[in-house]
Structures are given as C-alpha cells and as structure tokens.
Design brief:
The complex is a heterodimer. Chain A is mainly α. Chain A has helices at residues 2-37, 43-50, 61-72, 83-114, 116-129, 134-147, 153-176, 181-189, 194-229, 238-247, 251-280. Chain A is 78% helix and 0% strand. The longest helix of chain A is centred in the N-terminal third of the chain and has 36 residues, at 2-37. By secondary structure, chain B is an alpha/beta fold. Chain B is built from eight helices and nine strands. In chain B, α3 crosses α4 and α3 packs parallel to α5. The chains are: A mainly alpha, B alpha/beta.
Chain lengths: 287, 261
C-alpha cells in the first residue's frame, strides 16, 4: 500500500510538471498564430489551446495516452501503424541480443576467472568497448555485418549484445570470485575437480550478481536494438518509429514510441526480477 | 595398527614470506598422533596452531622438515580424502539446504545416490539435526550451523577429523553442549581428532593429549597426556584432576608467552 502510494505521488508530480511544461513550451506557437491573425490572446485562451495542438513542441500527457491507445488497441497488430507491431520487431531483436550478450558476458567472465592470460588482458578491452559511443559505432557494425550477409534482426541483435554483454561480464567476474578462501579450501579438502568447484561453488555463488547484471543488461539491450534501427532505415521497430516521427515532425509518434519502449523495458526488468525471486528467494538469498 | 601413527611430523618448519619480512609460523615442530587420539592444540594467536592443522590438511606447504598423514604425504592423504576439515565458521553454502550441504562432499567424491541419502540421514542424526535437513542455513542458529558443518565432515569415510576452533564463535552454553556431543561422537566413531582451540577448559575437557604452543616463532612447548577417564560428564571440570591439568596448561602458556613484546 505504501509503495503504491509513493509511486502514485511521484507519477502525479511528474504529470503536473509535464502539463506546466507543455503549456509554456507550446504557448509560443499560439502567440505567433494570434499575432499573425492580428488578435490579442491571453492565458485563458492559451492554456486550453496548448493541450490539443497538432504539432506541439511538448505534447500534453493525455495526447500521448490517446496516441498510444489509438496505435495499440484500435489498430490490428499486423498494421504498420500499430505500436504493438513495431514493439514486437524491436523486442525480438532485444531478446535475441540479450541472450547473445548474456552468453558472451558469462563466457568472458568464466575465461577471465579461470585463465590467467585472459585475466590480465581481457578486462581493459571489455571496458574500452563501452567507452566508444554506441551511436557512433552502431552504423559501422550494421554496415560491416551487412557486407558479410548479416542484416535485419541479427544485425540489430548484435548491437544489443554489444551493449548487454558488458554488465554481465563485469558482474559475473565479481560473482564467480565471490566464494571466500574458506569455501574454496573446503572444496580443496574434498579434492574436488575444477569442474566441480565451478558448478557446485562458483556458479551458485555468482547467481545474485548475475541477476543484478541481467536487469541492467536487458534494459540496455532494448536501447541497443532501438539504436540499431536508426541507421538501417529499417521499416519497423520503435527506432524506425522515432526516426519517422522526427522526419515528419510528428512529435506524438516519437513520444508514444518512447513510452512504448519504456513500458517494454519496465516489463522486461520486472520479468528478470520475477525470475530472480523464483531462483534466489526460495533459498533466502534475496536480502 | 601400522607403525606410523595417524600423524607424524618431525622438525617441521614453515616460514611465510610477507612484505614485512619472513614470519616463522612453525619452527622445529615434532609431533606424533596415534590413531583414535583426541589431540588439542592450544596457544595464543599467532602460535601456528591453525597453520599446523592446515599443513596436515595440505592447505599450506611446510618449508622444512617432514610430515606424514596415515603414512602418506599430506598431499596424497588429501587426494585420498583421508580427513574431514571443520573450519572456524560453519561455511555452509547458503543456496543448499542442510541436507544438501552435508551431501556436498558425497557428491564431490562420487558416492552412489542411495548411499548418500543413508549417510546424510545418519550423520544428521549423530549431530542431532535429524529434523532440520530441509531447512536453509539462515534458518538455523549459529550452533546448529556449526553442528551441520561437523556432520558434513563426518559424512564421508575419513579416519581423521581436523577441527579449527569450530566453537570459537559460539556462546558458553552452546559450547558446553557441543563439547559433550563431540566427546560422545569421538567415542562412537573412534576417529582421530585434531582440535585447535583458544580455551583451556575446552582443551582439557576434550583431549586425550594437549599440545601447548607458543608464538614467534610458532613452536610446541609442552605436550600433556590427559589423566582424565574416558567417560567425562560436564561436572568433571570441577574435579581436582581437571583443575590440575588446566593449571599445567595455563603455566605452559604463560611460560611461552612474553607480554613484554
């Protein structure tokens, strides 16, 4: 109950600021229109007018809500104007990229923890891969992949993977190293093989770290997929939607795509949270 | 019984190279432990008692002297899983139930599935945790967790039990109780026990032999054979024989420990 109340409070505050912002940002256009028509205009006329402009600088929240409603519920999901249609295109690339990135991240972490050469050499590369702005490198990745015959879903997924492997690799290196000396000594007294130490000690120790990383990874996988849609001029997806919106000055389309993406991200992070609870909650490891 | 004891060490040395210079953790340690004995190692911090236990367990390598465990090198003994080790903390794996924690060494050592269940049930019974197998470690008190860790060390067939201050973090009452249980366990299983402790009463109460150690360099300064009978109720600790042994241990500790440093 308290969490519901606090979330509702924050939402109301954001909405209030948003409405005020919409009034002030959209007022200029109303004043210009009035000046052009040679009539005087006061706040009493401006405020309602800013709520329903066709091309507002900042659309009012209810305009975005209506746009989202129209493009989800009132459109068939196979329609190119359906946000669900575009959402699925982005989401499928996100999920594929997430799986690829998580796999890569875990493999890297296992390598770094078990191989001295990788321990000494791999981490700087992992970190520097993330210092390059993704917006700059994404088009190059897309072009390079296109020229070796990979495009569309897999190309976008690879941008997602490029972003999402990072938190997993960093988190899992920490997680696989989480067992303390005593726990490792115990395995040594059993004369356990490296394989047994991994599966019975390192891997379960790393799970809390893995889930923390997965939450970050899945959110940025979505960002990656959207960015992957920008340079390709792709026909679908949230990214294509945003790009189209900005070409044609359809701010509402951009905002509804933004919200669609945000809702998807929230749902996916929530799903990871549920998985985390299912795996760790039972054993009292969620604290 | 073979002529070699459970543990046999002569002029054992171990020097740790640290940034602050060499640290003489063990110096010229001679020790014979016969099968079935309960030997306590007592001494102040830094006297090398834990290090000695870790050398026996092949967790540290001596820099000089010789040591054998069941007539083998400690390394060979470890590969043959000749001992169970109980650490200062219970160190149970939090994602495993008590049952599964106790089963861990059996899984690692490849015991067949049916035998695992039998052994787990048996040792949990031994340490009085029969009804707690399905619980997770965090649901148990510290004393119960430590008992589970002892069960874990007893689950497989090792004739030697190495215990490193297993009751150090527990309160007096729980400690008394566990000491009693440990004695009964020793009597029932006939295992050789090496037991590291800080506590004089604990050492005297449990042991057939007490090894008094002293720091800088870590060395043995006295070995005391217990005069107490095998049957030891808790109130034996008020008997004259007990107090005499305790005072001899205390004197040994005092002689080997200079407070001027």
């Amino acid at each position: 109950m308290r969490t519901v109340l606090s979330i509702a409070t924050i939402c109301l505050a954001v909405l209030a600021v948003w409405y005020v912002g919409a009034v002030f940002l959209n007022a200029k256009w109303e004043r210009d229109q009035a000046a052009r028509a040679g009539v005087g205009i006061g706040w009493a006329e401006i405020v309602p007018a800013t709520m329903s402009q066709e091309r507002p600088v900042l659309p009012a929240p209810h305009q975005v809500a209506v746009e989202i409603w129209k493009t989800t519920v009132e459109k068939r999901i196979t329609s190119k104007r359906s946000l669900v249609y575009h959402g699925w295109i982005t989401l499928s690339a996100t999920l594929l990229g997430f799986v690829m990135g998580v796999g890569l991240g875990i493999l890297l972490a296992v390598g770094i923890v078990h191989n001295r050469a990788m321990d000494l050499s791999a981490m700087p590369w992992v970190i520097s891969s993330q210092t390059i702005p993704i917006l700059a490198i994404a088009p190059m990745i897309i072009v390079v992949l296109y020229n070796i015959g990979i495009s569309g879903l897999l190309a976008k997924a690879s941008i997602s993977a490029y972003l999402s492997f990072f938190p997993v690799a960093v988190g899992m290196v920490k997680g696989l190293r989480a067992p303390d000396d005593m726990q490792l000594d115990l395995m040594r007294t059993y004369n356990a093989s490296a394989w047994q130490v991994f599966w019975k000690l390192r891997w379960p120790s790393s799970l809390p770290y893995l889930f923390a990383s997965l939450k970050v990874a899945i959110a940025i996988a979505l960002v990656g997929a959207i960015i992957g849609e920008l340079p390709t001029g792709s026909q679908g997806g949230f990214g294509a939607r945003m790009l189209n919106g900005s070409y044609y000055g359809q701010v509402l389309i951009i905002w509804s795509a933004l919200f669609g993406a945000a809702i998807c991200a929230a749902l996916m992070v929530g799903a990871v949270g549920l998985a985390q609870r299912a795996v760790l909650g039972r054993t009292g490891q969620m604290r | 019984m073979p002529e070699t004891g459970a543990i046999s060490a002569s002029s054992l040395d171990l020097v740790f190279q640290t940034r602050g210079g060499p640290v003489h953790a063990l110096s010229n340690v001679d020790l014979e432990v016969a099968p079935g004995e309960f030997v306590s190692f007592i001494g102040p911090s830094g006297c090398g008692k834990t290090t000695l236990l870790r050398v026996i367990a092949d967790l540290e390598q001596p820099t000089g002297g010789t040591i054998s465990v069941n007539g083998m090198t400690p390394g060979e003994a470890r590969l043959k899983r000749a001992y169970g080790y109980v650490f200062q903390a219970a160190g149970l794996y939090p994602w495993r139930t008590i049952e599964k924690n106790v089963r861990l060494p059996l899984e690692v050592m490849g015991y067949p599935a049916r035998e695992r269940a039998e052994r787990v049930a048996h040792v949990l019974e031994l340490v009085g945790l029969r009804d707690f197998g399905r619980m997770f470690p965090w649901q148990l008190s510290g004393g119960m967790q430590q008992r589970a860790s002892i069960a874990r060390a007893l689950a497989f067939d090792a004739g030697l039990l190495l215990m490193d201050e297993p009751f150090g973090a527990l309160d007096e009452i729980v400690r008394d109780h566990l000491n009693e249980q440990l004695l009964a366990l020793h009597a029932r299983t006939g295992k050789t026990v090496c037991f590291v402790t800080h506590s004089i009463p604990e050492a005297v109460y449990l042991s057939t032999r007490i090894v008094v150690m002293s720091p800088r360099p870590g060395r043995i300064i006295d070995v005391i054979d217990s005069t107490l009978p095998q049957e030891r109720p808790l109130d034996i600790r008020e008997s004259a024989a007990f107090l005499e042994l305790a005072s001899r241990v205390r004197e040994g500790l005092r002689a080997g420990h200079s407070y001027d440093e």
